[in-house]
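go over whats below:
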Amino acid sequence: MTKLKTDDFDYDLPEALIAQTPLVERDASKLLVLDKGTGEIEHKNFSDIINYLHNGDVLVLNDTKVIPARLYGIKEETGAFIEILMLKNRGDDVWQCLAKPAKRIQVGTVITFGEGKLKAKCVEVKEDGIRFFKLLYEGILYEILDELGEMPLPPYIHEKLEEKNRYQTIYAKNSGSAAAPTAGLHFTRNLLEKLEQKGVEIYYITLHVGLGTFRPVNVQDVTKHKMHSEFFSMSDIVANALNKAKREKRKIISVGTTTTRTLETIMTQYGQFKGCSGWTDIFIYPGYTFKAVDQLITNFHLPKSTLIMLVSALAGKEKIMHAYREAVMHQYRFFSFGDSMFIK
C-alpha cells in the first residue's frame, strides 16, 4: 500500500465557510448524503435524516457533557496572567491541562482563579504546553467551573457564544469533555422522538473529548502520528443491545467520530460489544477495517486532521475529498457549528 501522507488529506476551504455561530434551529443545517459504495452524493437538510434511518436500525450517540474548561487566572507569586484549558481528570483532582504561556509554569507554581475560589498547583511539567495541576477548592468543582469557566470553543471560532448550551448536545449528561461531540449538535428532542416512533433504537455511550481534538497532525507519515488517550464507557445494557443488532445483521449508525472510536475500540479489544470503561488512543485512517460501525453521521472536519482521516477510512479517501469539494462548491458551513454529512 502506498504510504499515506498527511498532505493527502488537505483541501481548500474559504475562511467564510467556517461557521462562527450555531443556526437558530439545530436541525436546519444542510446534510450531504454520501453513498460509500457508489460515491453518489445528495444534498438534503438535516431533518431529512429520518428518511435514511429505518425500523430496526440502531443509532448510537455520545452523551458526554462539555465542562466550562477554559479558565483565566493569575500566577500567585507574580500576578502574571495565565490561561488554562482543562483536558482530563487523572483522579484525586489532578487534571491534565493546556497552559498559556506554559513557560511561566513550573512544578510548584500556583494559579488562582476567581479571587481564590479555585486554585491550581502545578505538580508535573510535560511538553507542548501540557501541565498537570492539583485543583484546590471547597464545594463542588463543576459548580465552581460553571461560575468561573468559559466554554472551550475551538480556536477557529472567533464569535462569542451567546448561549452556553448551544455548544452542548441536547442529550449531554456525563460531564468531562473539553470539546463537544459536534455531530450530535444537529439533533432535537423532536427528531429523536420521531426516529424512535419509526422503530430506530437509540443508545448512548460516553467518550470524554480531550487533547486529541486540539492537536494537529504534525508528521508527514500518517502512521507515525500518536493519538492522546480519552476516557470512554459503555453500559452492559447498551453492549447487549448492540450485540443483538450485530447478530441480526441490523445496521449500527454512529453519531460522530467520538462514538465511532469508542465502538471500534471495544469491538477491537473484545471481538464483541461489552459493558466496560477505559482509555482509548485508537487512530483510524484508510486501511482500517471497521468492525462495529456501518454508517456514520458526522460534521465537516479540518484539513489534514485525524477526523478527516477517520471518515476517509470509512468511505474511501477519494470519495471523501470529492464530497468535501462538493460541499465547498455548495457553500456548506464547516467545522463545529457547521453542516452535516451522512455516510451511508
Summary: The mean pLDDT is 94. The chain has two domains: 6-66+164-343, 70-148.
